[in-house]
Amino acid sequence: MAKSVAPAQEIVAEADGVHPAVNARAARPGVALRWLTPLLVLFVIKQILLVAIIGPFTGHDEVDHFSYIARLAAGDGLGVVGEVRLPKDLAPYYAGCVAPGAQAVVGSACYVADPPFNSEVIQPPLYHLLMVPIYLAVPGGILAKLYALRLISVLIGLGVVWLAYLTARLLFPNDALIVAGVPIFVAFQPQFSFEAAIVNHDILLIFLFSLLMYLLLRGLRDGVSPRLALAMGLIGAAGLWTKVSFALALPVVVVGLFMAWRDTSRSWRALIGWLALAVVLPMVLALPWFVRSYELYGDPTGTSRLGGIYAGTASTYWGMISSPGFWQGRLEDFWGNYGWRLIPFDTRDNLIIWLVWAVCGVGLLALIVRGIVVRFTGGRHLLDRFQWRGLFLLGLSFVALLYGMLYVGTIQFTQSRFVFPAMIGIGTLTVVGVDRWLPARTRAILVPVLVAALLFLNVYVALRYILPFYYGPGGGAVIYP
User: Fold this and answer.
1) Cβ distance 240 to 280 under 8 Å?
2) What is the DSSP string of 147-160?
3) What confidence category does residue 98 fall into, taking pLDDT thresholds of 50, 70 and 90?
């Protein structure tokens, strides 16, 4: 069992003159459902509206993913990159992809990466296989099937919001602002909302990554059992069969299991058993896909073939890290630049969002500095041991995915959505950066303020950017085959 540590919330609340039960009432499960249920309903309504508003097949790689599903539904097998051609009935969405100086097809657009081939068949097929029964069950043409599959993304996104609540409650059970603020942040983050409204395997990846991190934190708090380690291993295998970049989660699992092991009197043999189930097992279960990729493309992940497709768009680690323009682009990608970066925000709106987010970041940095000082000088702790280590693991998962984003940039152009599997961690660190510096009595009161601010952001973005792009004068972004 994990070591018992007195909750830091009691220290903070008593220092503020408020008994911890005052703040805990708003965070306990029974009361939380009174606000969580409306939040989940609002999220579903918002997502259904996005499903209808976003032009068909204009999500990033949506043409390719839909075609991948259709190919499997037809029994045509996995296919090989550079050999699988996109279906002709989706030509309006990729016929506009032409060589420089060539004549584009009238009324066509370009929403694929490697026309006329499907570059997404390089990805593991779990998401696409799971979507095949839905594809087959829905009557009608490709648009009916597309919107049905988009609704499945909404449901998966709903699961991520629920996991955001569970994770926040696990780490800060007595803090209403964090327990409510993290799922609110995730539910209303504009780019996550976009991911949860299109046909794309990234939304399943976010769900699996979030579930793995939640179980890891559970193990850190309550102790790791073989059953828990096995569950983590199976989730890890599912993640690898969704996208090979899920392997970036495995080093975080190693660190978390080692932390949990140090809290026990178990032998090295126990730790090795946990690692075998949670880390080695998923790699073994995913081995057939790695072997297939190596035989077809010359490496286990297929990155060499991707490098050929996206030749000329890659950079170097230092070229990206040292470039202010690169980081500005990643900030823009994180909050906006929907789909194929066709809907950028105005500079003013970007700066407002970044400024507010930076305030949260400064608060988090100050909290970390204070924690280091208190550790060596003594004083009042704002977080307990489990909370510090939980935040460390969430931050480490973000850093691992950030490295993955940079690694992709050495092969092709890269995007902020590659860090989205850590969205719950990002939301938690953001809200904690504000919460720990507020008097305990004000934290629950600020929950409706947070809802109002993020809801306003979503409505503003829809009216100011998304609707005009797709349906405004001269938009012409919606194409119906």
Assistant:
1) no
2) HHHHHHHHHHHHHH
3) low
Higher pLDDT, 314 or 170: 170
Give 353-398 as a DSSP string: HHHHHHHHHHHHHHHHHHHHHHHHH----SS-HHHHHHHHHHHHHH
Which residue carries 């420089």 as its tokens?
A: 100
* Residue 39 scores a pLDDT above 50: yes
Helix (H, G, I), strand (E, B) or coil at 183: helix
424 Cβ neighbours under 8 A, 6+ residues apart: 160, 163, 164, 167, 182, 186, 210, 213, 394
Spatial separation of the C-alpha atoms in residues 169 and 172, rounded to whole Å? 5
Q: Are 394 and 401 in contact (CB under 8 A)?
A: no
Q: What is the pTM of this model?
A: 0.90
Tokens in use for 83? 């050999």
From residue 320, give the alpha-carbon distance in Å to each of 17, 327, 422.
48, 8, 21
Distance between CA atoms of residues 365 and 394, nearest Å:
15
178 in helix, strand or coil? helix
Mean pLDDT of the chain: 86
- Per the CB < 8 A criterion, the answer to whether 23 and 9 are in contact is yes
Structure tokens that stand for 322 in this block: 């040292």
For the chain, report the end-to-end CA distance as a whole number of angstroms.
59
Q: Quote the percentage of the chain above a pLDDT of 70.
A: 88
What residues pair up with 338 in beta bridges, in sequence order? 343
Burial 202-240 (b: 16+ CB within 10 A, else e): bbbbbbbbbbbbbbbbbbbbebbeeebbebbbbbbbbbb
50: number of Cβ within 10 Å: 22
Q: Which residues pair with 343 in a beta bridge?
A: 338
